[in-house]
Structure formats: structure tokens, C-alpha cells
Design goal:
197 residues
Length: 197
Amino acid sequence: MILVASLLALSALPLVCWVIDASTDARVPRWRVAASLGAAVTFLVVALPPDPVLVTLSFGLAVLGVTLAFVDIAIRRLPDVLVLTAYPPTGAILITAAVASGDPEPLLRAGFAAAVCLMAYGLAASSGALGFGDAKLAGLLGLVLGWVSWAAVLSASLLALLLAVVPAIMARIRRGRGAEFAFGPPMLGGALLALPL
């Protein structure tokens, strides 16, 4: 299974690198992207149960997450073209899975979790505490994590805050009070760690 995941990650690598290069002026070393993508996919393969819906969602989230993390670090922005275009296929996967299983409860929970996350992060963004790209990403992560459980949604949010402590301190030391930092990577890391819960 790890070999298959590694091959899938390698097959996605050229696309991920191309999107990062097209979205930023920074030249990110390929080995960093490959290592990040490989680590994310391997972690998910080892930690997740063999549920086809969860594996499909998590692989897509790993590929998108690595891409968004590098872009956000480089330009302090989560482009709509990357975040918003992930909503329709994610929704389609969840709707198909709910219809196939005959159980609408995970789909309803996912939709409600997405709405709650989008509103909560949207309020934070409207006050200037976060960017609106973070709010849009929160909705997407809420959709995926909500399919798993409410515990996964809550855990991801708490883990994101914990993972943001070090970058926030480093940004403040380097650039002073009120310094901005990329919150997308901690959000994505929190989601990655919370998926197996």
C-alpha cells in the first residue's frame, strides 16, 4: 500500500510543482515538494483505515495541501483558483458516497461542518485576524473532516492553533508586532493529523 501511495504521490509531483511555480515567483526546490508530498501521503496511508472514500479524499487533500502550503508560505495568500475549485469534486465524492451507502448522515454532518467552519473563520477574517483565503480553506477542510466526525473537525482546529504558535512567534521576532504569517500550512497540518481520529 505504501508503494502504491508513493507512486501516486510521484505521479502528482509534476502537477504540484507546476502549480506552485505558476502561482509564485519563488523557486521552491523540488526535493522539498517531493519530501512534503511523500510524507503527507505516507502518513495518511499508514494512519487511515482502508476506506475508499476517506483514502480518496485524503489523497486529494494531501496533494492540494502541499500545493497550498508552499504557495501560502511564498505569497501569504491562498488563491481562490486552487481552493474554490476543490469544492465541487469534494462535494461530488461525498454525495456519491452517501448515495452509494444509503446513509445521508455523514454528508449532512460534512455540509454543516463546512458551513460552521466557513462562518467562524469568516468572522475572524472580517476582523482582520485571518485572511479570507483561510476562511475559504476552512470551509473545504470542514467539508472533508465533517465527513469523518465532529471530533476530527474540532481536533483539526485545535491542532492548527498549536501548529501556528511557532510560525507566529518567528514572524513576530523577525518583523515585529502585528507581523503576518501564513496560517494555511498550520490549518492543513492540523487537518492532516486529525483525519485518522
